[in-house]
Design brief:
The structure is a single chain. The chain has about 170 residues and is an alpha/beta fold. Helices cover about 45% and strands about 10% of the residues. The protein has 2 domains: about 140 residues, Sugar-phosphate isomerase, RpiB/LacA/LacB (Ribose 5-phosphate Isomerase B, Chain: A, 3-Layer(aba) Sandwich), CATH 3.40.1400; about 30 residues, no CATH class. A 5-stranded parallel sheet has the order 2-1-3-5-4, with helices on both faces. Helix 2 packs across helix 6 and helix 3 packs across helix 4.
Length: about 170
């Protein structure tokens, strides 16, 4: 069963952006094969076996591509998933979450509308990683009571960018 419909594959934004540092090249390759075997289009932003780059650069590249609308979603993998999540969340408009269990993978989408999932190659095994990706890909934002919270997150981001944080407005 395809995780995305065939019609959505013609839209480049439905292509999943993926990137990994040198600690996660093998897991990235496994996830790419897993997604492609299910009919999901994938754009690999690196690293390759002979490449060299720090995980913040990979995370930024994938997150910026998602923020720019080139892709609806992205997956970034490093040793723990933490560093790439922190970096991706620095990109305006991005919500990235570390997903190491099925519940966090599902809720990152359904409750927080995260466009990027991050994984830790030194934390999750290959079969669990594939399962987490499947769960995350099948999950959609549910809105409801979470919608105002996600909107508030984005509002805080806009306030910070404009220099008008709530603490500045109260002072």
């Amino acid at each position: 069963m395809s995780l995305l419909s065939e019609s959505s594959l013609s839209d480049n934004s439905q292509t999943i952006a993926i990137g990994a540092d040198d600690a996660a090249i093998d897991l990235k390759s496994l996830i790419i094969d897993h997604l492609r075997n299910q009919g999901v289009a994938v754009k690999d932003y690196g690293l390759k076996a002979d490449d060299s780059a720090d995980y913040p650069d990979i995370a930024y590249t994938v997150a910026q591509a998602v923020a720019d609308g080139k892709h609806e979603r992205g997956i970034i993998i490093c040793g723990t998933g933490i560093g790439v999540a922190i970096t991706a969340n620095k990109v305006p408009g991005i919500r990235a979450a570390v997903c190491h269990d099925p519940f966090s993978a599902e809720r990152s989408r359904k409750s927080n509308n995260c466009q990027i999932m991050t994984l830790g190659a030194r934390v999750v095994g290959h079969e669990l990683a594939k399962s987490l990706v499947d769960t995350w890909m099948r999950s959609e934002f549910q809105g409801g009571g979470s919608a105002p919270k996600v909107e508030r997150m984005m509002e805080i981001e806009r306030e910070i960018q404009s220099g008008k944080t709530e603490s500045n407005l109260q002072g």
